[in-house]
Specification:
The strands form two sheets. A six-stranded mixed β-sheet has the order 7-6-8-9-10-11, sandwiched between helices. The chain has a five-stranded parallel β-sheet with strand order 2-1-3-4-5, with helices on both faces. The protein is elongated, with a radius of gyration of 26 Å. The protein folds into three domains: 12-53, no CATH class; 68-167 and 295-330, Rossmann fold (3-Layer(aba) Sandwich); 169-293 and 360-371, Response regulator (Rossmann fold). It has helices at residues 10-17, 21-28, 36-49, 55-61, 79-93, 108-120, 136-143, 169-181, 198-211, 230-241, 255-268, 295-312, and strands spanning 68-73, 98-103, 125-128, 150-152, 162-164, 188-191, 223-224, 249-252, 273-277, 289-293, 357-360. 45% of the residues are buried. 39% of the residues lie in helices and 12% in strands. By secondary structure, it is α/β, with parallel strands linked by helices. The chain is built from twelve helices and eleven strands.
Length: 372
């Protein structure tokens, strides 16, 4: 009799039924050519002991891969990351795959340990929604391991063996600035998150694209790149609104920063025009104008690339995604590489996907300068 806290194994089932482990395995895996009386004994023993086959172990023994996909987020509270994860989870379910999630916050060591666990447990692949700014080398090492499949929605996670699926962040910055400039604003306060972030860099470049050639537009005096959460964004905006030289309009470079800015405006009763990049759940209720992208399309493309790579049993690679040998994505002169014509780099033979960005005008970005 097994102890109450013992987990039944195939060996204990075989012993209870009085058969060999091989025979018990054949019965429980539904194989033919086993005597009916023997099958009945094995099935009865399994029922009595509460034994259940481990489908993951069975799949791995049969030469398959794990049904689990590692998913990396930097901030579970960020609206874009939450939306992207929900969409990825839906897409994975269509392939009978399940996510194993880590939220790295500001801990690159945690991120590295998670990747090591994913590799050690032979997970089918890894999807990076947002990584720590200092983790790119960690992913490059992971991608070099045989059979590793990595797809990233974070453009900073790049290199051989890593497929990038991302929106046009430079265009997002340009559209945000154009929306405010079109309504007469000349002093723009720009609030960003981690300054080393490639996403932030691209969005700032887009803002600069919109301002080039326009006289009298000020924004660099009002630029802050160190607001990476709601609290810090709230403090930046509160300090600006409390000064005599406050900008007349705000561009917030992430949904988290937008929410912090709105909190400061509400508490001070000051409502400058505002355009945020990335939508969030309460934005429509608060009449917040945003620049957004099709998150569901990005998630579907990420999972499709993961599936196709697993089916073909070949790793990603090919030319550097910057389009120039040896160059880092986003460096060099001219437009950000891979974002021309409103689409990011895709592998040869891979169909286009919807990564266009657009303005969702709800009111806050359409206020003229004299409404403050």
């Amino acid at each position: 009799m097994a102890k109450q806290n013992d987990r039944p194994t195939l060996a204990t089932v075989a012993a209870r039924a009085g058969v060999s482990i091989k025979t018990a395995s054949r019965v429980l895996n539904g194989e033919k050519h086993v005597a009916a009386s023997t099958a009945e004994k094995v099935e009865a023993a399994a029922e009595e002991l509460g034994f259940r086959l481990n489908p993951t172990a069975r799949r791995l023994r049969a030469g398959g891969r794990s049904p689990y996909i590692g998913v990396v987020l930097s901030d579970a509270g960020d609206a874009f990351q939450a939306r992207a994860f929900a969409a990825v989870e839906v897409e994975l379910a269509t392939l009978d795959l399940r996510p194993v999630v880590t939220v790295v916050r500001d801990d690159p060591d945690r991120e590295e340990a998670f990747l090591d666990e994913c590799l050690a447990n032979d997970l089918t692949g890894i999807i990076v929604i947002r990584a720590h700014p200092e983790a790119s080398e960690t992913y490059a090492r992971a991608a070099s391991a045989p059979g590793t499949r990595i797809v990233s929605l974070d453009p900073a996670v790049e290199g051989p063996g890593i497929s990038i699926v991302t929106g046009d962040d430079r265009e997002a910055g340009r559209l945000a600035a154009e929306q405010l400039l079109a309504h007469g604003h000349m002093a723009l306060g720009v609030i960003g998150d981690h300054s080393p972030s490639l996403i932030t860099t691209r969005r700032l470049q887009g803002i600069q694209d919109a301002i080039v050639g326009r006289r009298g537009v000020g924004w660099r005096a009002y630029m802050r790149e160190d607001a990476h959460d709601e609290a810090s964004a709230k403090n930046v905006v509160a300090a600006w609104l409390g000064s005599r030289s406050a900008p007349g309009a705000l561009i917030t470079l992430s949904a988290t920063v937008t929410q912090g800015a709105i909190d400061a405006c509400r508490r001070l009763g000051e409502w400058p025009a505002l355009v945020g990049i990335d939508d969030f759940p309460t934005a429509e209720l608060l009449d917040v104008t945003v620049v957004d992208r099709n998150v569901e399309s990005l998630a579907a493309e990420a999972v499709r690339r993961l599936r196709d790579s697993a089916d073909s049993s070949v790793s990603w690679g090919g030319p550097n995604v910057s389009g120039e040998g040896g160059g880092r994505l986003g460096e060099g002169d001219g437009p950000i590489a891979g974002e021309a014509n409103g689409r990011d780099h895709v592998d040869d033979g891979v169909p286009d996907f919807d990564n266009a960005v657009c303005v969702i005008a709800r009111g806050s970005g359409e206020e003229p300068p004299d409404t403050r």
